[in-house]
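Hi support team,

I'm opening this ticket because the web form for multi-chain structure prediction keeps timing out on my end. I have pasted the exact lines I submitted so you can reproduce it. The total is 1183 residues across three entries, so I didn't expect it to be a heavy job. Is there a limit I'm missing, or should I split the entries? Thanks in advance, R.K.
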Amino acid sequence: MDYIVEMLNIRKEFPGVLANDNVTVQLKQGEILALLGENGAGKSTLMSILFGLFHLDKGKIKVRGKEVQISNPNDANNLGIGMVHQHFKLVETFTVTENIIIGMEGGFVLDRKKAGAKIKALSVQYGLNIDPDEKIEDITVGMQQRVEILKMLYRDAEVLIFDEPTAVLTPQEIRELMQIMRNLIKEGKSIILITHKLKEIKEIADRCTVIRRGKVIGSVEVAETSQQQMANMMVGREVSFSVDKGEKEAGDVVLEINGLNVLNNRKTLGLKDFSLNVRRGEIMGVAGVEGNGQTELVEAITGLRKSETGDINILGKNIAKYSIRKRNESGIAHIPEDRHKFGLVLEYSLSENFVLKSYYQQPYSKMGLLHQDVIDQHAVKLIDDFDVRAGQGEKSPASALSGGNQQKAILGREIDLDTDLLIAVQPTRGLDVGAIEYIHKRLIEQRDSGKAVLLVSLELDEILDLSDRIAVVNSGELIDLVVNDDSIDENDIGLMMAGVKKGEA
Amino acid sequence: MKKDYTGVIKSLGAVLLGLLAGAILMLAIGANPLKGFFYLFQGGFKSIERFGNIFAIATTLILTGLSVAFAFRTGLFNIGAAGQMLMGGLCATMIGLSFDSLPRIILLPFMFIVALLGGAIWGIIPGLLKARFNVHEVVATIMMNWIAYWIVYYVIGDYFTSGLLETESASIPAVAQLRLPWLTDLLNGSYLNLGIVVSIACVIIIKFILDRTTLGYELKAVGYNRHAAQYAGIKVNRSIILSMMIAGGLAGLAGLTYYTGYSINIQIGVLPTQGFDGIAVALLGATTPWGVFFSAAFFGLLHAGKGFMSANTIIPPQIADTIIAIIIYFTATSLFIEKMWVKMKTRRLEKKNIKSGGDE
Amino acid sequence: MKDMIDIIVNIFPYAIAFTIPLLITSLGGLYSERSGIVNIGLEGLMVVGFFAGAVTIKTLEVALPDLSIVIGLLVGIIAGVLFSMLHAFASINLNANQVISGTAINMLAGALTVFLARTITGSGNIGIRLGIVRWDVPLLSEIPVIGPLFFQKTYYTTWIVLAIWGFSWFLLYKTSFGLRLRACGEHPNAAASAGVNVIKMRYIGVMVSGGLAGLGGAVMIATYAGEFNGTVAGLGFLALAALIFGQWKPLGILGAAFFFGFARTIADASQVIPQFENFPPLILKIFPYVVTLIALVLFSKSSKAPKASGEPFDLSGK
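Hello R.K., no limit was hit. The queue was backed up. Here is the completed structure from your submission:
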């Protein structure tokens, strides 16, 4: 058994989270090993330890049979380990050559020509097709990723770690990347591929180690394992909290989206020709892995992001060109993904946060003057109704509350707005069991009282527990829309989230 | 609320460190720091005149301090208070010199309004540039300072000098002055004037705006977290422009009180240091209206006493400015301490949350 | 046409005298911002150099007449470097707000230098007897037209500054040091993951800005100022404007500094230049500032500012 890298019994804990629990992963020389798991399973943490960005609490690492200490990226580089990050570490205004040679310039005076020649040679050797003199800001995302690969090859890396490399690539670029990986193996390198995409694992990996909630589930030979089986291992068969969800007849359409196209931060289409509707008395769950268009969808509906084409209708009115305030007033409540960035002003008290969207209306203010006592009373009521625990009551600064209570506060504020549509994005992220249960209960309550609820979540369990219908997104497109009844298998959803349409596995 | 105290403690800490550094400086030049401080702080109380001057000096500083503090609350750095002050003072002086036949009861409010407008316009311009074109307000306001400087230089120099001295404007006639003869007499010649009423009124009004109006709510939200403000439907750009407009207006009023109250003419070729001292006042006062008032009074005390101190020791009066600058340096670095404190608090709470199951 | 040339030849030396301190200070600002630290304390750092230079020259001018000025320039540089460390420490180690720290530097420099000057001379003004003697470059000064323009009656500091400028251009774009420095200002995480010590680089950036701005102030006293009077009249801020106007590139700031230098000189001397006699002097005086504002409007949207400039560096990020 020729293992080039071994991570043995690794334990890594963060405040409140056991990210890696006695994890053992072994990479054979010359193989492509896939690390499979859902968001938050612990794969990125593990690889960050290997690359020296984090320190392990317990366990050991062996490279070529010898035990080693890796305390920073330089150590990793010296051992021949390189990492191609999910978020590229490239200076946009520099050329390819300049980005690659930082830290390894080989002398006081830069010799761009010499470095460029070496880079060109490497590029040809591995089929990377890169022009060393181009600036990063001028090349495509696929090419930028190859620069990251070249960075590692320039430093004579033997082991390359790829962190979710296809998340940002077009299908064509993915095919090219697969070929490049084969070239790398041919030249004697070994690869660890962190991913949640089953199709790609089937196409390129030799073995696959599955991680779920910080533990290793098992390692399999890819050739002998179907996508179905791998999905099983990834998603697992756990007892989920089934909330008591009664039957509810859905009513009129509240939210209707037609042909929505939205650009993402990279100025390409993050949401493509998207259509969806949500009706009164139903919870529409949007399932998908992070970064597949959910952010663009929600921001386009709420007005935080411009949409290119398509219409967004609330109760028949097209709000696509309305200001954010007007959209709010048209009947949208929004529990945002990032409660600290969008949901609360941390320096404001609970009282002030509770009127964040209504401070300018009566009875909270009149003619520009705030009615503090009305605002405070309102806050007291909400604190009581939504079980928000805060040391100084309504006068507590929002920053003083725990995450769960902050989220309950936001939930309370949005529900209190009594709108027709409630959008909840990752509503239970980072919360404990008790808070999760509470928030789920209130969301069902809203649906039962006739609201339309759009639930966006990265937790498949949550989607399955709460949704009446489920829309699955991948790469900005609606893969499928299904009714959440007993015929739905979580593995079907899991496959869809990974981009595989029903019947393709 | 607990948070208020941290602000006061930070400021007091910075003051103490500044005074300590001042003491070291005094030692370095061979003077006795105890004696130095004795004269410095006593100086303001030595006579009725000096006591009045504490507040006369503070008047202008309160207004520039409010200007900087107000902009800061919206997340903006108003380094342009000096230029806004000049423009406000220029407008007031021009009116005062040109319309001196009007009765005082009409003339003074007239001057007040033009000073307010002059400063406000001078503030809106960088505000607009920031909101529409994302031009950083620090450099924009510094440019505006120098443009104001030269406008005053030529407008006063060519049209409003008295012929006697080329470097300053004609003196404002008594009818246009903010000085009150009875007050000046009462305080044995102190420069205290109506300006103090204006500045205290502004403290009260600004506090009211910040604490009790929807405008204040919006401006503070933008300053604390512009993303959440956007989410709430607040128009961030409009807030930036409004905030700079008000900040400019306040500094414009500082010009009114200084050039037609404390002083009775405008000197050309000078960028008023009160504009920059306003930054110090705002930071030391933890950018709150009453904090600004007390810091301005403290600075007034230092300035009123420095003459007395330098007459009785070998210490040059610039020690006051030096101490003030050192205090500012320490307030800048103490912001870090506050950030760490808040981070520590939230991290501790998050840990508690996970461990104990989420409830306080 | 000859009139134009005459004008240029006449005002050239004055424009240069004004431009050179501006250029070297702006260059200093470039180093700081390129490493990722905003330094609006250039004004204060110039004052420190101005003061230190004046004091040194005055102290030594009797005993060591020939060397006093050179030593004065060196002391100006050192004073700038030391003073800038206050800003470096606050901005880099304590993650203080860089604008406030820079403002504190300006205020402190202004107050402290006058304070010390007053203890030395009572009035606070420090005058020196003799500045740099102007000098004709041998051979080059005899070339027609160009000779009198560029090479006659020059200050040797002009050549030193231009040499520093040229070396800086080389350093920033042709050496590994420059590559790393610029990386720290654009994407410090990328630099850190490549093994660059971002903190060290930023310290260097700020200290160089202190040294060069200090030199700028010292050059002022040695060339045209003649006397320290407590302020550099906004030159440091103008250098900041030149930095932005020049889009953070050495060639750009050379152009911007000359532009400001000429604009200012024309404005000052407008009375004696026939063509400009009738121009309202106010317009000429505010011209550089208005143009800077316009440039800011045009450039801020697609700003070429170092991307990470002004943001605290956090290693625990992605």
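A quick check on our side: Chain A touches chain B through 48 residues (CB under 8 Å). Let us know if the file doesn't open in your viewer.
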